[in-house]
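User: Could you check the structure of this?
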Amino acid sequence: MNLFKRTTAAGLAGLALAVVPAVPAAADPAPPGASCTWRAEPVPVPPFAEPRSYYVDATDGEGNFSGRTFVGQSAFGVVLWEHGEPRQLDLPEGFDSAVPAGQTRSGTVLVNATSFATTPATQQIFLYRNGTYEPVRLPAGYRNARADAINDRGDVVATASVPGGSVVILWSVLAAGPIVISPPELPWASAVDIDEDGTILLGDGYSAYLWRSGTLTPQPPSPGTPVLTREISNGTAVGTVLDPAGPKAVLWSQDAPHLLDGGGEAESVNHHGTIAGRLGAWDGPPAVWQGTSLVAKLPLPAGAASASADLIGDDGTVFGRGDGDTGPVRWRCGS
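Assistant: Sure, the predicted structure tokens are below.
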């Protein structure tokens, strides 16, 4: 899972919307928050470091996570949190900036690296595992792709620019080589996330489609109504419908949309169907849903007047950021 792909779209609120009915999704047998209390705590940073300079971008869903910190005016370095302790990695040789794009349960981190030594800048996708950066090779004729996501079995999706548009590139562990996905309906195709079965959530900026084994399926009310897509897990995708009356958090299950209680925006979903986002508005309070049902408004971290909930792992940990100098925060539900 990855959260370094967030885009605000409040400025598109004037676009027309065909309202989607709220249809309850199947509830998790033991929804989080039913008998526990959510608590906010700061994500640990090194001594004397400024918390606001650190970001959490991905998690393995088992207590470890990865992110970035500033190493220059517009450059980042990768940070791993293992057993709660941060460790900053060296940059890949020859590159000036590196940002995680995803993390697997086995600990592999998908990384986008950039070198500013050329104009335009050079980009390279890496897999960081066993202490080594391994380059991901693009198919012939493509360059400077941006990695978007990785699943636990190791499938990687990326987006690459081509003249007059963009394409999605899939490296599947089940295929002999990379697959270029270029649907005629989407001249500006862009990958968003990939599920464990290889289903890809993609779009062209404000649309939602699923790509399954070569078949492209639109997710209503897209493409007629603009939406923002965020993540997919265990067959459930989440995002936000851009309604003139305000953002409407939505989940897609079996190619049908279901609005979440209270509106707002859905940012992340885990294997159990638990969703993290913001309630009611783009700047609403952080919140958690189980299916379409609101579980809890999350408490603000100490010293913060507002906060965002941007990422949820399969272990139920929610990551986000507080405003001002608060920096990254995580919420966990306990007795």
